[in-house]
Amino acid sequence: xxxxxxxxxxxxxxxxxxxxxxxxxxxxxxxxxxxxxxxxxxxxxxxxxxxxxxxxxxxxxxxxxxxxxxxxxxxxxxxxxxxxxxxxxxxxxxxxxxxxxxxxxxxxxxxxxxxxxxxxxxxxxxxxxxxxxxxxxxxxxxxxxxxxxxxxxxxxxxxx
Length: 160
Description:
Strand content: 25-35%
Radius of gyration: 26 Å
Strand order of the largest sheet: 3-12-4-10
Order of helices and strands: EEHEEEEEEEEEE
Low-confidence stretches: 10-26, 155-160
Oligomer: single chain
Number of helices: 1
Shape: elongated
Mean pLDDT: 78
Structural class: mainly beta
């Protein structure tokens, strides 16, 4: 078993803090107004094809040049189905949410709340951009990669 090389001892009392580094440097950065930027490369879950239903609020790193379109797929209103309050459907180019329970039969716009177009076109993007599907839409018309949502990174450091 080999020994690790010896390191000079540091005084933790004066200027070093294992969590924040040198307190002197830290104080200087705050005084000078310096900002620290952490860049997190998105973690790829899997490849997706154009018009694949991935769900609302998902992130996709596109692999082709835009513009692209957001779409809500697989939610077309069907007269034979029974819909409940807040169910989501598409009809006539728009997304609707149900305003009451037990909706059946022909589409009646009085029972639905119009919330957005079912397709939003012409959104500019470059290769490698990470784009969200949004609140109401579940697909885009470009191929790419589904990205893990890492927007909630734990913050463990505490300033004293």
